[in-house]
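queue> pop job 88
queue> type: inverse folding (structure -> sequence)
queue> payload:
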């Protein structure tokens, strides 16, 4: 869905239309706050907003019933993307910094929004085993009183040679 830009006046009318969602011209005249615009002015804006794709019409007898086509949330996304692209180099970080610096958002707001309660546990790293290196660097010491089999064999060989 392609969304077109709105003038300030069109946007003000759309704010009212988003609240009503589906309506007739007489509903707009009743719901519009004071000072109420002339009926011809409202009709002109309704025609423009239909042409821009924000409203659709269904003819019921001699009158039209208008229905909002572009949801408010979609319009907000469109505006924010335009703002980001035109003024913040498509950077969400720059937008957040601006909002924070202008005190439009607080650190508490950010903490509450990003409180995801994710626990990050450090990965369990097992130390590599270097058995050969360990044997060379830390040779096993034999307990006193016990003679290893290899030493016994060496002694026997020496006796036989004699």
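queue> result:
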């Amino acid at each position: 869905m392609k969304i077109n830009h709105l003038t300030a006046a069109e946007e003000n009318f759309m704010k009212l239309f988003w609240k009503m969602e589906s309506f007739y011209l007489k509903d707009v005249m009743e719901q519009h706050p004071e000072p109420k615009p002339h009926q011809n002015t409202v009709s002109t804006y309704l025609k423009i907003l239909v042409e821009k794709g924000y409203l659709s019409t269904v003819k019921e007898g001699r009158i039209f019933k208008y229905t909002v086509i572009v949801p408010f949330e979609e319009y907000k996304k469109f505006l924010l993307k335009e703002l980001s692209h035109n003024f913040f180099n498509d950077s969400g970080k720059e937008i957040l910094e601006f909002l924070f610096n202008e005190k439009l958002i607080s650190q508490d707001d950010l903490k509450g929004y990003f409180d995801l309660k994710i626990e990050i546990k450090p990965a369990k790293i097992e130390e590599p085993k270097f058995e050969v290196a360990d044997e060379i660097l830390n040779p096993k010491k034999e307990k006193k009183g016990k003679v290893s089999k290899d030493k016994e064999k060496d002694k026997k060989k020496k006796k036989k040679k004699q």
